[in-house]
Specification:
- Helix 1 (2-11) packs parallel to helix 3 (39-61) and helix 3 (39-61) runs antiparallel to helix 7.
- The protein is of the alpha+beta class and 279 residues long.
- The chain has 13 helices and 7 strands.
- The two termini are 20 Å apart.
- The chain folds into 2 domains: 2-63 and 94-148, Butyryl-CoA Dehydrogenase, subunit A, domain 3, CATH 1.20.140; 155-275, Nuclear Transport Factor 2, Chain: A, CATH 3.10.450.
- A hairpin with a 2-residue loop joins strand 5 and strand 6.
- 36% of the residues are buried.
- The longest helix has 23 residues, at 39-61.
């Protein structure tokens, strides 16, 4: 389980994580490990190195990210393996964390994942990324700042924004439309860009009742949605299997949520600074 957990956080793909773990076991079967004192640590190192090479190969091939429409975990389509299991695995790790990890360099991702998530010392991480332990520590520190982010809002405003956004998500997940209406300003405006919906046209909804009806039409996406810092302000990210599909930005006024912006355009999504609320 530990090996697969390391590989999945490195690669963000259940099928690739399984490939990395299988390669580690193959190497174990071919290696003379009679002098290995800690076999778990040896296997973790092998899995990490294999995962790092796979990440670097992605960068070399300059793979384009999957289009948002393909990222949905639909049975019979997408990656090899069980999409439902992959979705559950992504949920257990944290969708926002997987989104942020994808913005790191392979070396930053390895240093952060191994040290911050699995307590591997920098003396062991350094050789994996061909750096000194001090340089590996700096890689993890740089990654940590990206993952955790910071809010420019005063603490009280940031806390209120978070409470409102989390309440909006909870009400959406529970189908509690009365609670949703209570969170919205009566004159709330929702704007969605053409890439965020199935009809490929801009959408503008005005008024609490209209916005709630629109939210109910997108209920299937709620499962893959969680709070995150978006440019330092609490919002929501929708990320099936950890692949960013939508960003929801909220404006909160005295009477509740006054505006919701739903962004699905890949170019706009790539410009957001997304960070994890809790780790």
């Amino acid at each position: 389980m530990r090996l697969r957990a390391v590989a999945y956080r490195m690669l963000g793909s259940a099928s690739e994580a399984d490939d990395a773990v299988q390669e580690a076991w193959l190497r174990l079967s071919r290696a003379d490990t009679s002098g290995v004192e800690n076999l778990d640590a040896w296997l973790t190192t092998v899995v990490a190195r294999v995962s790092l090479n796979m990440l670097r190969a992605r960068a070399t091939r300059r793979e384009d990210p999957l289009p948002p429409q393909v990222a949905e975990p639909v049975a019979g389509r997408g990656e090899v393996g069980d999409p439902e299991q992959e979705a559950l695995l992504a949920d257990s790790v944290g969708l926002a964390l997987l989104v942020v990890l994808d913005t790191l360099t392979p070396a930053e991702r390895l240093a952060f994942v191994l040290h911050d998530l699995f307590a591997v010392p920098f003396d062991e991480i350094g050789p994996m990324v061909e750096r000194s332990p001090t340089a590996a520590r700096q890689l993890a520190s740089r990654a940590r700042r990206r993952v955790r982010g910071a809010s420019p809002l005063p603490a009280a405003d940031a806390a209120r924004q978070r409470r409102v956004v989390e309440a909006f998500l909870a009400a959406s997940r529970g189908g509690d439309f009365e609670a949703l209406v209570a969170l919205l300003d009566p004159d709330v405006v929702l704007r969605a860009d053409p890439a965020s919906g199935p009809f490929r046209v801009p959408l503008v909804l005005r008024g609490a009742q209209s916005v709630v009806k629109g939210a109910s039409a997108s209920a299937d996406r709620v499962r893959f949605t969680e709070p995150a810092l978006i440019d330092g302000v609490v919002g929501l990210v929708t990320a099936p299997r950890g692949r960013l599909l939508l960003v929801l930005r909220f404006t909160v006024g005295d009477r509740g949520i006054t505006a919701i912006d739903v962004i699905g355009d890949p170019e706009r999504l790539s410009r957001f600074d997304i960070a994890v609320l809790d780790l």
